[in-house]
Amino acid sequence: MSAPGGTGLLACDVPLAQRYGLALVDLDGVAYRGPDPIEHASQGLVDARDAGMRLVFVTNNASREPEQVADQLTGLGIPTGPDEVMTAAQACAALLTTRLAPGARVLVVGGAGLRTAVTAAGFQVVSSADDEPEAVAQGFSPELGWTDLAEAAFAVERGAWHVASNLDLSLPQARGFAPGNGSLVAAVQAATGVVPDSAGKPSPTMYRLAVERAGATEALVIGDRLDTDLAGARSGGYPGLHVLTGVSSARDAVLAVPGERPHFLGADLRALHVAHPAPVQGPDGWWECRGQTARVSDGRLELADHPGATDVLDLARAACAAVWSAVDAGETVDADTVPELPVGSD
User: Fold this and answer.
1) 98 phi and psi, to 5 degrees?
2) How many structural domains are present in the chain?
3) 97/162 same-domain check
4) Is 208 in the same domain as 193?
5) CA 211 to chain centre
6) Of 59, 165, 239, 317, whose CB has the highest number of CB atoms within 10 Å?
7) 263, 223 in Cβ contact below 8 A?
């Protein structure tokens, strides 16, 4: 599909669940946090389905089978079938088919989900660099250890193609942020000096596979990370909703580089059921969104309070417009003048 015009926020005068027939929904930080639910996620997604929106859950986590992901979502009050889950493992296997012949040997360093996906794609899974694999497929698994990473490094040093399911440096958990697959891949890269290819977000591969599977022509991407979810939306030409329940904050969105900017902002998944305003520029360089205003002057972000304007999310939208416009015009904006914007669920 063609990318939404421009690099700024989009306006949508009807609820997003009515405007878009398909949503590609991230998991960690959006639908749940580790084993725990995220407030308003279940109701927001169930109501979206009731409004006619189809859902495909698209995750950079390659450690689990689609059936396991679907079971967890169902247990959290979001009824889901395995065919509604697209994992980075499946995208990784699809990427391998672009260069390897059926039956090629692949060293899988990851969980059961990655092994299943690589096998289903027609490859022979091996466990040692001494098996002379043509590729190393690396995905996250909490059980991975030094021995696994060393085996991957040995194979890559001998010429195997290194393919990562994703490059997320961190993984949201109930207790905080843990090292993600990207951190483990970086260890292999540091040992070998070889830069891996990646199938997961921010590559739009998974989004395109999910849209094709659904038989759709457009989709709304929903994510919490600017550098993966929303970057993938931008690179794939899909509108992206940034929900503030995970990794990236409203301040992060204001300071986002063009290739990682969201098209819509929402505190949580209730954002699917409201219209979304876009800021407009007024006199003296001020950007206004439903009474909240912001501008950049001499490289500094300025925010103005107005009577009756209480929505911090609208202030974040105005700040995004002001900073993005200034940056796109070649101006340098002092990041220290961009405050934390405490947007969140209530």
Assistant:
1) -75, -15
2) 3
3) yes
4) no
5) 15
6) 165
7) no
What is residue 95's three-state secondary structure?
Answer: helix
First to last CA, the chain: 35
In a domain, 85, yes or no: no
Other beta carbons within 10 Å of 336 = 8
Alpha-carbon distances, residue 117 vs 72, 90, 123, 190 (angstroms): 19, 5, 9, 27
Q: What is the mean pLDDT of residues 249-260?
A: 97
Rounded to an integer, the average pLDDT of 305-321 is: 87
Split at pLDDT 50, 70, 90, the class of 3 is very low
Tokens 């942020």 — which residue? 177
**Of 28, 227, 268, 314, which residue is the catalytic one?**
28
pLDDT in tens, 204-217: 988 998 999 899 99
Residue 145 in domain: yes
Question: How does DSSP classify residue 64?
Answer: S
Reply yes or no on whether 28 is catalytic.
yes
> Can you give 271-330 as a three-state secondary structure string?
HHHCCECCCEECHHHCEEECCEEEEEECCEEEEECCCCCCCHHHHHHHHHHHHHHHHHCC
Q: Give the pTM.
A: 0.86
**Quick one: pLDDT at residue 171?**
79
What does the radius of gyration of the chain's CA atoms come to, in whole angstroms? 21
Catalytic residue among 26, 168, 224, 268: 26
Give CA–CA dist 261/267, Å, rounded: 16
What is d(CA 52, CA 310) in angstroms, rounded to the nearest whole number?
31
CA angle at 105 for the pair 84 and 91, rounded to the nearest 5°: 20
What average pLDDT score do residues 34-47 get? 95
Domain co-membership, 190 together with 213: no
Contact 194, 167 (CB under 8 A): no
The residue range of the domain holding 256 is 16-60+202-273
For 109, the token pair is 């360093």
CB atoms within 10 A of CB 255: 19
Confidence (pLDDT) at 309: 65
